[in-house]
Amino acid sequence: MSAPAPHLTERLKARAIALGFDRVGILPAGPSPDYERYRRWLEAGHAGEMGYLWRHLEAKADLRQLLPEARSVILVGLNYAAAADPALRRDPSRGQIAAYALGDDYHEVMRQALYELDGWLRAETDRSSHGRVFVDSAPVLERSWAHRAGLGFIGKNTCLIDPGLGSWLFLGGLLVPETFEYDPPPAALPGCSDDRAGREEPSGGRWRFADGRLGTCGRCRRCLDVCPTGAFVAPYVLDARRCISYLTIELRGVIPVELRPAMGNWVFGCDLCQEVCPWNRAAPPARHPRLQPQPDRLSPPLLDLLALDREGFRRRFRGSPILRPRWEGFLRNVCVAAGNWGDPAAAPALAHHLHTAPPLVAVHAAWALGRLARGTGRPGLQAAWERRPEPDVRAAIAAALAG
Hints:
Elements: H1 8-18, E1 23-28, H2 35-43, H3 51-55, E2 72-79, H4 86-90, E3 96-97, H5 106-125, E4 132-134, H6 142-148, E5 153-154, E6 160-161, E7 169-176, E8 187-188, E9 206-208, E10 214-216, H7 222-226, E11 232-234, E12 237-238, H8 244-250, E13 266-268, H9 272-275, H10 302-306, H11 310-316, H12 326-341, H13 347-356, H14 359-369, H15 378-385, H16 391-402
Parallel strand pairs: 3-13
Antiparallel strand pairs: 1-2, 2-7, 4-7, 5-6, 8-9, 9-10, 11-12
């Protein structure tokens, strides 16, 4: 492979922006930053049922385990900010979907662009081998690498925050054998009086970036205080087991009863800790055409979502990350939201799922029926008692009837 041409770094970054990315930084490939902190987070049990994180632990120690010949890692950020209608967001009869899932699946959007970026670079350097693309699914600590590359700082809500774009950023990257002019990491500044837990945390504090921007959470704790399930056990530390995003997407089983009332009407993900962040007040909307919100995902009525069968679910959310929890997991979430709504209008649909759906959905439908106003869910619960033999479903019915 020939040596990189002059000004390759600038042209590569320009090409990445032309492909739709909003931020790009380049670092030498090597041992992963924040690896030991990440290991401690796993050992504390904060990952919940996400066992794949343990399986990928050792691979995350060094990027070169993914591509032995890698000499550089190109980090990219893609803005996905979407304006929310406050009136729709306050309506308990509507389900709420996290902003990142309102458009096309970002994994495909970013992978396609990164493959194109690698193809462009191969043509520029006469490289015959392919680079390694990663977007979430590969064992890479993207946020830590992006922070080191100057794309932003890690906030108390554990999101990467770009001082210009806020935290509405998808992260991904490309491992390649070429060398470049690398981006300097942000400089840690003294004198930051925040309340973060543990001075050893490398991603907290106050930062100055190469272009002069400053980034810090300072004394702000809006994200910590707004979380209804208490998922932040300390600043910069998220216990995923209590996070609404984890509960509605990653958790495959029954949602703990004590957490359901706090979930409100979120049916896929949660944006609360980002919505209150001051850095997001002036965040520009996403410019990528495939990330524009689709109308049927903007606060859809819960009754419409309760009416979805398996095929209707797949058809409505085709090409969307909303498919990840599958029909059973998604309807489980919708039942919880309907129970928190509490309107008798949901009784027929909830009773139908209690009578006919798999146990995972039926358990949550029973809970929701028990929360409907004026006892309107009791007939459906009593009828199902005679029809559902599964112990977990019967236990849920009995608890709902007992009030």
